[in-house]
Amino acid sequence: MRRIEKIVQYAGVLLVIAAILCNPVFLGYVFAPDKTITSLPLIAHILLWEIVFLLFGIFFYRKSGWAVLHMKQLFLSFFALFVLWAIFEITLRLTEQRIVVPLNAAYHYKYVPNTKIIHAIPDGKTFYKQTNSDGFVDTEFVGKSPIFLLGDSYAACFQAEDCVHEILEKELHVPVFNFGVGGYGILHELGILEEYKHLRPSLVLLFFLPQNDLLENERYLYAEKALFAQGNEKRGLRFFAWYREKMEKVLRNFLSISSRLKKQLHAEKTVENYEVYLNVYDSVWEKRWQAECEAVTAIARLTASLNATLVLITVTGSEQVYPSVWKELQDIYPVLQEHTYNLSKPNALMAECAEKLGISHLDLLPPFKRNPAMLHYPIDGHWNAKGQRFAAEKIVEFLTANNSRIFINSSVPPKRDE
């Protein structure tokens, strides 16, 4: 009996050591998708697990005699927890909502076809979206001389009920095919246009988001977006992915009194994303802009070969529109205070690129800044319902004013499969 008590005490000591030394590394490299232990959610995870490990460790060390006497009950309790955990793990695997799937070398990935996707944003809202048989957030692609919408998560529109492509379709009476996928850059969109050019678009609307499009192109070239593929994004145990998600939700609710802490909780972007606003670029960013304009050039040439019109649309980051958001980001990332920034610089550079190519360019930043309404979610950063509608209105105004080659105000609305 004395020997068993010693073993229990040693187990308690090991738990204490694990809480002090191993737990941060374990959480950071196993549970965290970005493999860092500096974010607020992970700090909370580490604190929680350290408390659990310490309590059990101290209990086993101080109450080893009691633990030995009740060894059978403890064993049965742990076994029951293991069975429940196994059932829960199987349930999560069977009910998991798949988001993206690897496809081919042209654009790496897209959403799983014919799937209902449940998307919750940190601002407390949940949206339900349905993909079509091609794996995009839209109804079936039906109709002649459609408008193509190419873009990232702003075009995919998981954050609003009514989206730009739906509003455009109703206003212009032309089928609008939404090819937006979160995380896409211009090179991904070039692959999409090449793949679906047989649908013969009359107009191509190309979204450009300054905040991350240049880096998305770079990741595309190095195939890093394979990390988004189903089976890799949530590799390992689904239970811990579920636990991390629920833990962050609890933290968001707990910290709801502080918008700054909620923003820090949701700070998924790296500081490198915001270097696009630097007043002076280094050679790396100069090359990124060169690659960006070359990608736009390739899309312009392909569009012209289809006898279609290309309109380049620069969408807005919330930090560009609202000074308070940029100030909070500088507070969260103090390194952003060490340089000077011009938040409209990438918009001007993209306008220069469009002018050189002789293509139409719509910069949404000026009208968004003039609009007093809140058009972005405060934490998520994407357009809210008002933002989606306002963007669609400005696009319609631009297309009408510039006589774009579309069938505006046709008497017969397009027929689309619901």
Distance separating the two termini: 71 Å
CATH topology-level fold name of the largest domain: Rossmann fold
Our Rg estimate from Cα atoms comes to 25 Å
Structural class: alpha/beta
Describe the sheet with the most strands: 5 strands, parallel
Q: Mind telling me which CATH architecture of the largest domain this is?
A: 3-Layer(aba) Sandwich
Helix content: 40-55%
Mean pLDDT across all residues, rounded? 81
**Domain tally:** 2
CATH homology superfamily name of the largest domain: SGNH hydrolase
Give the percentage of residues in beta strands.
Answer: 5-15%
Order of helices and strands: HHHHEEEEEHHEHEHHHHHEHHHEHH
The number of helices is 17
What does this molecule look like?
This protein is of the alpha/beta class and 418 residues long. It has 2 domains: 2-69; 100-231 and 269-401, SGNH hydrolase (Rossmann fold, 3-Layer(aba) Sandwich). The protein is 52% helix and 9% strand. The chain contains 17 helices and 9 strands. The protein has helices at 2-31, 40-62, 64-69, 71-95, 153-156, 164-172, 186-195, 213-221, 238-254, 259-265, 271-274, 283-305, 318-321, 323-332, 345-357, 365-370, 385-401; strands at 100-102, 109-111, 116-120, 126-130, 147-150, 176-178, 203-208, 309-314, 360-363. The protein has a 5-stranded parallel β-sheet, with helices on both faces. A two-stranded antiparallel ribbon has the order 1-2. A hairpin with a 5-residue loop joins strand 3 and strand 4. Helix 6 (164-172) crosses helix 17 and helix 8 crosses helix 12. The longest helix is centred in the N-terminal third of the chain and has 30 residues, at 2-31. It is elongated. 33% of the residues are buried.
